[in-house]
Recover the amino acids of this structure.
């Protein structure tokens, strides 16, 4: 068991609020994905767009980790985890493809 997961499992007995903190982090990270894509798309350069896509990809990866953590802490059931994990991995692949495409166009 990794240190982060073990720590949260230990603290969860003392802090009921931990679940709500994780929910807040997940909301921020998932909202950041489309926000950064839109902001990057309005950028005046391809380089700027790629930079914002990288931030969106990082936020999506952060959300994916938070999903895994939520599953491991039994905050979400496996069926819901499978659906959400599949969707975020699909989004990460689409962002990667767009980044690759923009890199090819700009060089």
């Amino acid at each position: 068991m990794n240190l982060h997961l073990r720590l949260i499992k230990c603290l969860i007995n003392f802090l009921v609020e931990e679940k709500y903190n994780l929910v807040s982090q997940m909301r921020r990270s998932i909202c950041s994905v489309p926000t950064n894509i839109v902001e990057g798309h309005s950028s005046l350069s391809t380089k700027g767009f790629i930079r914002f896509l990288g931030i969106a990809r990082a936020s999506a990866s952060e959300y994916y980790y938070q999903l895994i953590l939520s599953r491991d802490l039994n905050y979400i059931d496996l069926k819901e985890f499978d659906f959400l994990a599949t969707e975020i991995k699909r989004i990460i692949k689409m962002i990667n493809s767009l980044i690759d495409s923009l890199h090819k166009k700009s060089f």
